[in-house]
Amino acid sequence: MEDWHEALRIPCVNTSTTISFDSNQNLLWSGSADGHTVSYHDSALRRYTSFRTFTSSPVLQVLTQEKYVISLGNSGVRLNNRRGILKHNYASPAMKSLSCMSFTKDTHEILVGGSEKKLLKINLDTQIITPVKCKGTVTKLTRASQAIAGCKTDGTIDIFDLNSNQIVKTFNSPGGIISDMDAKESILMTCGYSQKKVGFVLDPLINVYDLRAGKSLPPIPFPAGAGFVRLHPKLSTCVIIASQNGQIQILDYANPANVYLHQADLSGQLVGMEVSPSGDFMALLDGSFIQLWNNVNTGSSFLEFANPTEYPAIDLGGPELSLDDPDSSFSSVGLPYYKEELLSSWSDPSFVYNVGMPSNTNFSQDSVTDMKPTGFGGFMGFNKAKLKNTAQKYVSYDKKNGSTVPMFISEKLRSGQVEDLTSLFADDDKNSKNAPKIYWKHDIQYSRFGINDFDFAAYNNTKYSGLEHHSPNAYCNPLLQVYRYSDSFFRFALNYLTHNKLDEKSLLSELGLLFDMLDKAQGQHCQALNFLKTLSQIPQANALGLILDDHKSTTNNKRSLLSEGLLLQSFCRFLMEQIASEGGVRFESIAGCPTTIETKVPSCGTTSSRHSIFYNIELYAPKLFLIQSKPTFLQALQDSFVRTTQTRGWCDKCKKYQTVHSTKIIEKLPITLNIHIPLGKSSQEDAITEIIGLRQPEGEVLMDERFYRNTNWPALSFGLNKGMKVVDAKNVHENGDIYELMGIVIEVGQPESHLVSYVRIDEKTRGSKVKAKNWYLFNDFLVKQVSESEVLNFTHRWKSPVMLVYQKKLDLPPFDVEDWRSRLDTSILYRDHFAAGVRENIQREYTLLTKEEAPKPGTLVAMDAEFVMLQQEETEIISDGTRSLLRPRVLSLARVSVVRGEGALQGIPFIDDFIMMREDTIVDYLTQFSGIEPGDLDPMTSRRSLVTRQTSYKKLWLLLNLGCIFIGHGLANDFRTINIQVPAAQVIDTLDIYFIKSRQRRLSLKFLAWLLLDQNVQTGNHDSIEDARTALFLYNKYQELVREGKFEQTLAHIYSEGKKYNFKPPPVVIPAAVPVPPAAAAPAV
């Protein structure tokens, strides 16, 4: 400590008032009397930045954090980055004659004091200003380990607890006015003035306090009069004391005899003193000069681990090139600045010609196979379908090699372009062995606006909705689409919804809800998210290997190694069994095939018989080389009704394993018939199945693909006569049944293997009572009408059948929606149904509906939902720095609140459900935006009204089907995450009401409430009841403005005011809580 000396002295730009070392970078900051903030870099004190912070106030104090430099003035606080750019300005009527500030628990919150008899706590992230009660005017603030010390004009020192914001201790200083103080851990030191006969003079003592024990310690003498005191940041008992005339004393207060004295050469009185975070530098300020002191053995850094300081890039200029050097590249010389278009970029369309592409030199695989080899190569016959050396039609490289993705909606609005959607899926090479583009697996692209910017309409211009595929296990989508348009399945699933099945995981309920959503969507894209999530939570499905992760593979899933076709067939069998167990015997007539199974042991003649129900038939066709002629589809179907297989089994009579013959005899066909195609496997898949133990059962024959490789397969219809005789539909008897093909699931092989489905939909045409039978292709969210000939054409190698679905021809009346709605069980709306039974001591913030308030068509309700995050977003940054969103974050419903929109109890909530989560892993509660705290969704710790996801969803679904109109702000995002489809006629969104399309800016609920309703909402964490009620009041305000004819004028005023305030309300000053006088307190019970 004896080696401290002055290392450098620089003049101040203006009269400096304060100095401060940066806590993150190697910088020294100073503030001036004219409002400038200046920074100096490293121990050489090179000028780094200088910017104007205040126009009519000196800079009183400077604090630094990771992102910002915080400057204090007389009437405000400003946040700038280290380059001087203003980030935020805190100014309010409560900020008068400010004098000090300090960080609280961390560097994201500060406490500001001044002449007002209160402190202001400012959250630098949320911009919320909260008052803290204080007695008297605070002149100095400093932070200790667990508290903040504030000194006042009368010399007393208040200790504030950081958790309760209460004064926990007050010390009375022996002197009068405190000039400086500092704290470290639990030690606080102060110095100041005392009242003498000649006036106020500096005390010759440093007062020491132990904050942990709450008592004073022996003072430290300093005869020259202490004006400044700083505790050393590294040495635990070292303190640096300085007088106003420059005398510096460095001592160990645990051993007062160890003292070192120094004298600074000042041009005036000492104004400020600071010690660097490394403890190796000390800065002195005398108003005109800044002195930098250091130790002989110290380095040049103010911090031990400083972040790099940003400097502007230096333009080194271009390289010098010689005109005589033939190797010189003039393209390396940069272009000068120009305002007009260069000639090299001239692109007049009248001078651009498409001259075609080079002749096609790509040969098909069949041609290469037929090539006749010669000594140097080979030759083959020319395809005479077109002339030799014919130039191909011009196709740009980007279009030829790029994916089939339409422009984003925002790009179309910004550029004004009209995209040619017909050419988007056009196939340039008709002879390609790959599937046409409409059969490709298409990916959803995400812009910075998320999924709402993706143009789904480019993939579907029909009234039938597709399903998104970015959810795990979306391989089920094609089969779900087929069953949606099966009349018997649709009626059975929707009728099941008339009962409340809330406690168990019901696939049938989720299937009915999905069918209802697809029906209401009318061509809008949907998600099977709830159905697939329920499927993944059923242990039997996981045990059967039906559950895939995001990358379509699982560590314990044997079946995932096989094709998606085999996986879908297994899923179909499981789904039918699951629906049968939930729906009862009524489902057997819809999809069940009563079957007799006869077994016989040839060695001993033992026979047995049993009855069972199967929900699918496996189409049988023998190997073609074993028979003389290829069977027809109807012959193969007839042979499938009676199947004999040979296996090894235990014989009770012989008391050993014997060869057993099993014969399955189908006795009756259901309304909806599922036919599975025995899929052939590649040699690689055969090896896999042998390794993992999934060998083909003996006697089961895989279908030869030549059986269906023709242009008219399968049969569009067939008849079933008495005795289970399959005939052509034209030859069916009077009492026979006719089955019509209504769905096919196919596996597309190239360029990427996946599943799609054809579905036949009966549509009424205008002016005709006859229904047209049209075929549609469902490729996830792509839906296109296709011809019947295309559906039945299986000559393409990329197209293989997986499942056929036939439906019995029945003359049924149309589904009566009104009768169905009248049978809905709505009791769940009038009672609680908690996830863990009756819960005691819950925080109930709602009043249940009564029968007198029963919702009816047109009833207004306001709602809002809160969500938690289950998975972070996935992004990709390529080499040029472009950042693209691969998959958005995954959110899950955590809370939903619904309030009454009319009546005597308008604004009172009747639903406030917190969703129980046991099986999901929450990565972020998003508390600041959702208001959900850790433990709120756990039934073991929560005091909230916890319900299952199925219960909360069923309530909203009932309100939807009862005809309620939902009011809210940004409901589209809420409905999408909840996964419910609400028709536009039943939605009133204040986000769309208070919106001018030409401004291209949406207004927040918080800003609208402040400007129109004079209410400050979302001041802390979000609350869904408050948000729903605010949206309701905004709608009422809209109706009032429309009645008065002032809405357009008011909307223009809102946008005008929004520009002034950056579309954000001013920071909220929350009034301090007023203590209740003892006399007014409630009497004890």
TrEMBL record:
Single biological process term from Gene Ontology: nuclear-transcribed mRNA poly(A) tail shortening
Residues annotated as binding a divalent metal cation: D864, E866, D974, D1027
Keyword Metal-binding in record: yes
Keyword field contains RNA-binding: no
Enzyme class: hydrolase
Cofactor section: a divalent metal cation
GO terms for MF: metal ion binding; nucleic acid binding; poly(A)-specific ribonuclease activity
Main location: cytoplasm
SMART domains from the UniProt entry: EXOIII (SM00479)
Domain of life: Eukaryota
Coiled coil (UniProt feature): none
Catalytic activity: Exonucleolytic cleavage of poly(A) to 5'-AMP
Co-factor: note: Binds 2 metal cations per subunit in the catalytic exonuclease domain.
Listed InterPro entries: PAN2, PAN2-PAN3_catalytic_subunit, PAN2_N, PAN2_UCH_dom, Papain-like_cys_pep_sf, Ribonucl_H, RNaseH-like_sf, RNaseH_sf
Regulation: Positively regulated by the regulatory subunit PAN3.
Pfam families membership: PAN2_N (PF20770), RNase_T (PF00929), UCH_1 (PF13423)
Subcellular location: Cytoplasm
Alphabetical UniProt keywords: Cytoplasm, Exonuclease, Hydrolase, Metal-binding, mRNA processing, Nuclease, WD repeat
Gene Ontology cellular component list: P-body; PAN complex
Domain notes: Contains a pseudo-UCH domain. This ubiquitin C-terminal hydrolase (UCH)-like or ubiquitin specific protease (USP)-like domain is predicted to be catalytically inactive because it lacks the active site catalytic triad characteristic of thiol proteases, with residues at the equivalent structural positions that are incompatible with catalysis, and it cannot bind ubiquitin. It functions as a structural scaffold for intra- and intermolecular interactions in the complex.
Subunit (UniProt): Forms a heterotrimer with an asymmetric homodimer of the regulatory subunit PAN3 to form the poly(A)-nuclease (PAN) deadenylation complex.
Role description: Catalytic subunit of the poly(A)-nuclease (PAN) deadenylation complex, one of two cytoplasmic mRNA deadenylases involved in mRNA turnover. PAN specifically shortens poly(A) tails of RNA and the activity is stimulated by poly(A)-binding protein PAB1. PAN deadenylation is followed by rapid degradation of the shortened mRNA tails by the CCR4-NOT complex. Deadenylated mRNAs are then degraded by two alternative mechanisms, namely exosome-mediated 3'-5' exonucleolytic degradation, or deadenlyation-dependent mRNA decaping and subsequent 5'-3' exonucleolytic degradation by XRN1.
Membership in a protein family: Belongs to the peptidase C19 family. PAN2 subfamily.
Protein name (Swiss-Prot/TrEMBL): PAN2-PAN3 deadenylation complex catalytic subunit PAN2
